[in-house]
Amino acid sequence: MTPVINLADIERKAAEQMSHNAHEYYIGGAADEISIAENARSFRSLSLLPRVMRDVSVRSLETTLLGQPFSMPIGIAPTAMQRLAHADGELATARAAAAMRVPMILSTTSTVAVEDVARVPDVALWFQVYVYKDREATREVAERAAASGCKALVLTVDTPYLGKREREIKVGFHLPPGMELPNYRALGTTTVPEGKQESGLARHFTENIDPALTWNDVEWLRSLTNLPIVVKGILRSDDARMAVEHGAAGIIVSNHGGRQVDTALATIRALPAIAEAVDNRLEIMLDGGVRRGTDVVKALALGAKAVFLGRPILWGLACNGERGARQVLEILRDEFDLSMALCGCRNVVEITRDLVVE
Ligand SMILES: Cc1cc2nc3c(=O)[nH]c(=O)nc-3n(C[C@H](O)[C@H](O)[C@H](O)COP(=O)(O)O)c2cc1C
User: Fold this and answer.
1) Pairing state between β 63-65 and 68-70
2) d(C-alpha 229, C-alpha 152), whole Å
């Protein structure tokens, strides 16, 4: 058996184990999948300028996000329906996050209820919110998340409609029998409709998610709970400034892993202008195409406080449940630690802008 030593190895192994329905849903993006490719390519096209002779024999990867302490600046992005990858689904991910002391963002569209995931000992759980047309149902799910111990709400703002995900359409994506979306109870439906010549998920979105969302809704969400709000899906510096003005505690620079509008700018390329506009007034996080320890160094150098992983966690889950998700985080942690040392940095504060050449 060939050893598994990087995230690409885990992705290949996962592809052999998943149903076609699940694999196409997970791997896919919008239209021609240009943004998926660009997220990864843009990381590769940036060069590092390592600093030498800095005594890097003792290092720390620790950081804080929203005032919460974490072992490293790497977290788990919200990805829907994790029981498609492994029977334990979001519970396995939460156990891996707790073991690694990293934040996990739970998708609204999870296949395990927020209350059950939040019961996993020591998990730092943030809850991702989609605003439904039915505001009472939105209020209910946000309040459920707060009551069950989630430590932040992550409002996804790049999804007024689901992007045109052609793989989902071609497989007629559906949730297999026996799987439900228990956070959707207030909507009166916890299933995804069967897709015939369409994605069932896209239909579900069109029926339930509110495309009329505006910045005022950030304030509405803030009025529901005392939790910090993170706005996910920012690519422009003017939108980042709006997030500051409307009281967000953080933003996630994201193009939804290339699943919304295709040809949207790669996130690492969007980051520098956003960091400049925000000027430390809120915490900047980034996701999209992070696959190597050097990617984490580059994102931190260009102004992110942390990065989040989407698909790699799903591949880890598909390979080996909790242990697989943990392995993904361990591999990236070790690569990040080594890259930091080789760049002359002893901690995350020393990862400065001048380490990256565009
Ligand atoms: C299968 C899948 C499901 C996703 N579901 C959600 C979701 O429910 N809510 C959300 O805000 N983002 C969702 N995302 C986007 C991720 O949070 C994240 O932005 C993206 O996956 C990061 O890119 P990466 O996969 O290249 O790491 C999903 C992404 C994937 C691949």
Assistant:
1) antiparallel
2) 6
> Which pLDDT value is given to residue 190?
83
Tell me which architecture the domain covering 7-342 has in CATH. Answer: Alpha-Beta Barrel (3.20)
- Ligand 1, residues 26, 86, 259: which to mutate, most atoms within 8 A of Cβ? 259
Q: What is the dihedral of CA 21, 311, 329, 50, to 10 degrees?
A: 150
Q: What is the pTM of this model?
A: 0.98
pLDDT at 227 over 70: yes
Taking the centre of ligand 1 as the mean of its atom positions, its distance from the CA of residue 160, in whole angstroms, is 15
For residues 274-301, average pLDDT: 98
Mean of pLDDT values over 302-323: 98
Known catalytic residue at 246: no
Give me the helix-helix angle, 20-27 and 311-342, nearest 10°.
Answer: 50
DSSP per-residue letters across 51-78: --SS--SS----EEETTEEESSSEEE--
pLDDT reported for residue 157: 98
Which residue ranges have their beta carbon within 6 Å of ligand 1?
A: 25-26, 39, 77-80, 107, 109, 128, 156, 232, 254, 256-257, 259, 287-290, 309-311
The pLDDT tens digits of the residues spanning 103-115 come to: 999 999 999 999 9
CA dist 230 and 308 (Å) reads 13
